[in-house]
Structures are given as structure tokens and as C-alpha cells.
Amino acid sequence: MNIKTYTSHKWINLLHSVLILSGMAVILCLLGWLIAGRPGIVWTLIIGTAVVTITSRISPKAVLRMHNARLLHYSHAPELHTMVKELSARAGLSLQPALFYIPSPAINAFSVGRKQNAAIALTDGMLRSLSYREILGVMAHEISHIRNNDIWIMNLAEAANKVTSLLSLTGQLLLLLNLPLILMEDYHISWWIIILLISAPTLSTIMQLSLSRTREFDADMDAAMLTNDPMGLARALAKLEYVTRSWLDRLVWPGKKSSLPSFLLTHPRTEDRIQRLISLAGDINEKPCDMHHSCVKLATNLTPAGPSSLRRLLGRWF
Asked: Is residue 318 domain-resident?
């Protein structure tokens, strides 16, 4: 494990997170001040706190019910529970996250809740497609999200974004309603104020997306530290990228990237995530390869986990 590279990435991710959250807070407070002066800043903070409190009280089970998730007891998946227990201990979590199974062919896993009531959901497609080593990397990634309070941080960013949109709309309506009075009294409003009122929601959304990508990078770094195996998660990401693309795309455009600009993505590009993980594997006997071919090469060298591997993970449940 390349500790120096890990530490460098962690500090960069922390700096990015602080700057992004600070930027969102500045935009929010500036809008409050433009609309109502100093009291506007106070009311903005009060509304934001209320939104965060309400959203954080939403039960993780409510989210899981939306995905038709079923609870995985220890008897259903003993090896999976043992894996999560060990990773939780390494991460310093006092409570082991609950495990849920989603009967979906999609290859996906996600975490909900906070440290006190966290849960991790895994799809049938993930259990059938990834090897034990790759599932270990994915689970470490989700546990890292829980340890780092990323769900709460993203709720905070979402609340700031919603309040920013509300204040922006309020400011534009007030400006429109007072337009006749402004024209009659020949009162000039700075174009910077108008631009801020219009562009604030877009700027806040871009910052929120950037924060999401930063937290994903950070969870990747911590997952590699928890497992001491950066390539396990890298191989899982490579397989996910390969499987989710159609066979025609893989045949005609083997190196095709997403058409969306990177600043509009909720997750970093897979090749960027794999490249960072490979940079952590400096002390491991893994030969890095060219990133334009690494996804396909890693994926084609892997044999999908068949029913026997699934039964080994889920025990007698199947």
C-alpha cells in the first residue's frame, strides 16, 4: 500500500470538500443578505438547519422499501456478514451496518443512514457478477461512506442547494414585482445582483455534484486502506464499467467515454477512479496498464461469479 500517495489524496479530498461546502454556504448567505439584509442571513441558516434536520430523520428503511430490499440475516449470508463485521471493526464502527438484498440484475450497492442506523444494500446482479475479492472492495467502499458521514454531508449539500433555489426564486419574484417602482424612480440595480439571482442555483448544483465526486474518491481511498488491496475495488469498477456498456458500444467504441462533461456527473469517471487506485498499489505486485484498455482488459480476464459463488456467499438462502 502506497501510504504517501494515500495521504496526499486524502488531504486533497478534504481540502476540496471544505472549499466546496464553504462556497455553497457563501452563495446561500449572500442570497439571504440580498433579499433581507442581515436578518435574511439568519433566516437562511434557520431554514437550512430545519431542512437538514428533517431529511436526516428519514428512516433508511423507507429508502430500502422503495427498492424492494429484503433484510439479509446472518443465516442467509454468513460469509458476507463476516466480511462486513471485519471491515466495520477495521473502520472503527461501533455498530455493524445491516445488510439488505435487492432482487435486481443491475450491478449496484449503496449505503443509507448514519453510523447509528446504517444499512448497505446489494443487488442480485452484483452478487452474481463480482468475485469475493471485488465484493470485498465494494463493501469497504460503502463502509467508508458510512464512517466518513458522507450521507449526512451530502444531505447538508442537498439542503443548501434546495434553499439556494428557493431564495433565488424569491429574489427574482421580488425583483419582478418591484420592477415598475424601480423604473419609475429610476433606481439602478447592479447587473451582478441579477446575475447572481439567476445563476446561484446552477452554481450550487455544480458544487454539489463536485462534492459528490470528491466523496466518492475519498471512499475509494479509504476502501483501499481498509482492505490493503486497491486492485480489488479497481477490478470491481472495471467489471462494472464493462458490463453496463452494451456489446455494440464495446465493439464499435471500446474506448468511448461518457458524453456528459465531468462537472455534470455525480460520480468520477471510472477510468479516473481506477487510475487513483492503481497509484495506491505501488507496493503490490500488480502491473499497471494503459487506462484506455484497462477496463476491457481487466474485465475480460475475470470469470463472472456463477451460482456456486453466489451460494457460497448466501449460504442456504438460495
From this structure: no
Would you say residue 133 lies in a domain?
yes
311 within domain boundaries: no
Nine cell digits for residue 121: 444494500
The three cell numbers locating residue 312: 457460497
Is 137 strand, coil or helix? Answer: helix
Domain for residue 288, yes or no? yes
Count Cβ atoms within 10 A of the Cβ of residue 213 and give its class: 0-12 exposed, 13-18 middle, 19 or more buried.
buried
- Tell me how far apart the alpha carbons of residues 213 and 262 are, in angstroms, rounded to a whole number: 10
Between CA 229 and CA 232, with CA 230 as vertex, the angle to 5 degrees is: 70
For residue 171, name the pLDDT band (cuts at 50, 70, 90).
Answer: confident
Between 70 and 284, name the one with better pLDDT.
70
Name which of 81, 95, 130, 125 is nearest 107 in CA terms.
Answer: 125
**C-alpha grid cell, residue 5:** 500517495
pTM of the model: 0.80
Q: Which residue in 15, 16, 13, 31 sits closest to 203, CA to CA?
A: 31
Which of 62, 148, 146, 74 is CA-nearest to residue 109? 146
Q: Is pLDDT at 312 greater than 70 in this prediction?
A: no
Q: How many domains does the chain have?
A: 1
The cell numbers describing 88, all together, are 466495520
Structural domain containing residue 200 = 3-306
